[in-house]
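Weekly puzzle thread! Below is a chain. First person to post its structure in token form gets bragging rights.
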Amino acid sequence: MNVISAELVEQKLGTYLHDTFRHLHTNPELSGREFETQAFLKSELDRLGIPYKEMAWTGLCAELKGARPGAAILLRADIDALPIEEQTGLAYASNREGAMHACGHDAHMTIVLGTAAMLLERQNEWSGTVKLMFQPSEEKHPGGAKPMIAEGLLDDPKVDAAIGIHTNPYLAPGTFGLKDGAILANADRFYIHLIGKGGHAAAPHEGADAIAMAGQLIVSIQNLVARQVSPFDNAVVTIGEIKGGYAPNTLADRVYMAGTVRTMNDDTQAMMEKKIGVLLQGIADLWGGSFTYDYVRGYPITWNDKAMTDIVRHAAETCLGKESVVEMPHGYMSADDFAYIAQAVPSVFIEWGTGEWAEEARGTAVPWHNPAFRVNPDAFKYGVAVVTQSILNYLQGGK
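Winning reply:
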């Protein structure tokens, strides 16, 4: 079997990949509302002659069959955009007010469609089934992966392995970040109401200042990470929302706070959930106030199976050379509901280099979820080549 080179992909699909990406980028849709995106994907699958079924309302599962029976592998793309006003200045920028593909899901869909086209060209050379998962609502917990699994995504035929791919603006086109084990974190949220007692700012001893309680909590929560989490472990706590107070000369009787906890270890996750509650109780007792505390567990750790990761390593080295593989020393503290797929079958989540332009040094690229986030179109041929080669290698017996 011939190697799938980036040059071959560019020759056969270059214009198609760029046009598909531009269409999807211009027409983003928010989580759970991906109706036009679903319709576009259906039209592309119809054009390719690939059967599909609707799942999880706006999701799709399509199936390619090889020349002979064999294993089944799933390739996943998420399809939703973010509630962000685009500020890229691109000619094909979003035409939807307050919606933008600021995480690269438009690029993920492009890669999956391109991979499907390459696999169809070689359909008589491989055995088994390739399932294409177009998943809604990744950006909005509880996400679209679990409903698709519940509706039979991994059954009939039973999926044996899975691949997920994600843009990475910190890696150059033609490179792929790989890591065995945990690559993405647990992602939880917490919601807190601190309840004090209002009063005059000139006599704070007669009330219970909820803003002072909030200040102590903010510092103390960060000390949980600094002094309660092992230096060999990873945890992040961010308070992203805080509201409280009425006037400069008034004690606030309540403050609302919301934030996120990211952990790479389930025991650390449980400790953080418990210790935040302990902090709250101590602060409330000290200040004479009270609180409500709601801790919501989100997407779990995304785990890369070593054998699957090795298949992608080998594919990238075969297609592009050893320099194309970036061995990641640690994962990212972001999260993805591809984790539910990885809990069910051996999987690999690929960090795909979509790095920005020459004027941006590594480490200064515009990050995900930023209104200026961009995907370098030079990356598409590499993404399709490596993903296609990985699937072909797996269906040949994991070589």
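Puzzle host: Confirmed. Bonus trivia for everyone else. The mean pLDDT is 96.
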